[in-house]
Amino acid sequence: MGFLNDLRKDKMLAMKEKDRLKASVISNIMNGVLLMEKEAKREIQKDEGMKIVKSELKQAKDTLESLPSDHADLIEETKKRIEIIESYLPKQLSEDELKNIIEKIIEDNSLDKSPKSKGLIMKNLMAEHGASVDGKLANKVIDSLING
């Protein structure tokens, strides 16, 4: 069974529980997966579906950052959306874990600690740990390591 079937089951459960927010979030993810499947002309596996989930998470976090502080209800709803989305992702690596992994990548590949190496570092990091990496945090850690 594919990732889409898991999402369908979760959506049905959310609808039975009358959790409209969760059903809505799952629908958004499902739509992304369906579009990806249509473009690929095949069933999408869970690891591929994580790209959609990460994209939804990024959008929700961007929305949260852009909300005015006097809209407490919208802020709370967006935080709940983020929680729901994160439940579909594997545990995200912490800043310290990322730092250790990135230092190992630099060492193993004999890379210079310079901005020129940033693309290679990111490529290796995402290839090995893609779904567990927050891109913004990874960029921040890489920048701190290569810029001293």
UniProtKB/TrEMBL annotation:
Protein name, entry field: GatB/YqeY domain-containing protein
InterPro entries named among the record's database cross-references: Asn/Gln_tRNA_amidoTrase-B-like, GatB_Yqey_C_2, YqeY/Aim41, YqeY/Aim41_N
PANTHER family assigned to the protein according to its UniProt record, in alphabetical order: ALTERED INHERITANCE OF MITOCHONDRIA PROTEIN 41, MITOCHONDRIAL
Any GO molecular function: carbon-nitrogen ligase activity, with glutamine as amido-N-donor
SUPFAM superfamilies: GatB/YqeY motif
Pfam families registered for this protein in UniProt: YqeY
Organism for this UniProt entry: Citroniella saccharovorans
